[in-house]
Structure formats: C-alpha cells, structure tokens
Design a protein that fits this description.
Elements: E1 5-9, H1 15-24, E2 30-34, E3 40-44, E4 49-53, E5 62-66, H2 72-82, H3 89-97, H4 110-117, H5 129-141, H6 143-153
Antiparallel strand pairs: 1-2, 1-5, 2-3, 3-4
Helix pairs in contact: 2-4
C-alpha cells in the first residue's frame, strides 16, 4: 500500500482562509488526508462538509507531509462514518475561538477530521491546521517511527 500524506493548504483562498490564518498565526488554513489511491479526504467549508475528492496538487498551494504511521483502515472507517456530514461551524467557533472544546458529534471541520483519522479521537476538535501539521512532523521525528518506516522500505 502507498504512503498516506497530510496536505496543508497555504494558497490564498477565501476570506475564511484568511481568517483562519489570522487566528492561528499560521500560513496554513486547511488540511486534508491524501490517501494512496489519490483521494483527498477532509471536511471542507467550501464543499459543505465531509467528502472525498481529487485535487490537482500544486506545490505553491499545498505542503505535503508523509504520515508513514497512519492507519489506512482507521482513516477509511472515520470517513465512512462521517461521509456527507455537514461542516461543523459551531464546533470551529466554540472549540477554536473560545477554546471550549465543544463541537458537534455529527459534523466535523478539516483539522478535526484529520486528527481523528490519525487516531486522536476525543480531542480532534482541539486541532487546527498548524497544530495537526506540527504534531505529525514531531511524531515523524520519533526514532521508532523513523526506524519502522525505514524497515517498511527496506
């Protein structure tokens, strides 16, 4: 099976993208999980919620981070449970702007979807695109993750 990646959006985007960047102090405003088959999975405000699509990768718009420790079955399970669910507008405001952690159990926002897909269930609503990217990068630097990935390649 191919490599799963985290895609972080740094393109210009919309006013909503600019507000996310301003609030988080980051160049990133959206995130997606890129599956080995080329599907990009996420919850998108522009697309109305949890969905899969194929995105034309442009390096000036996206940073890709390999996630060799990701569990494809878990990601697919999270996607199957939430596909078609609406975007969690209340959750993004309550858990991000007010740090309350309150969110919808039936809807998701992008970084919540990615975090839960990577196994951070129960705290997924605490993540934003910057935080999920930094978390993945730090996990990737752990010696046992590097060793496990090199053994898979070997």
């Amino acid at each position: 099976m191919g490599l799963i990646q985290l895609a972080l959006y740094k393109g210009k985007g919309t006013l909503f993208n600019r507000l996310i960047r301003l609030w988080t102090g980051s160049i990133y405003s959206h995130c997606e999980i890129v599956m080995p088959d080329g599907r990009w999975l996420s919850a998108s405000a522009m697309d109305g919620g949890v969905r899969a699509k194929r995105i034309d990768y442009k390096p000036e718009h996206w940073d890709l981070i390999p996630v060799p420790w990701a569990n494809a079955q878990l990601i697919e399970s999270v996607f199957d449970r939430h596909e078609g669910a609406g975007y969690d507008w209340a959750g993004i405001f309550l858990s991000q702007l007010f740090s309350s952690g309150l969110h919808s159990e039936n809807r998701m926002f992008c970084s919540e979807f990615c975090a839960v897909g990577f196994g951070f269930d129960g705290i997924g609503q605490r993540f934003n695109p910057l935080l999920i990217g930094e978390t993945v990068r730090r996990i990737n630097r752990l010696p046992f993750v590097q060793l496990g990935h090199s053994l898979k390649k070997g």
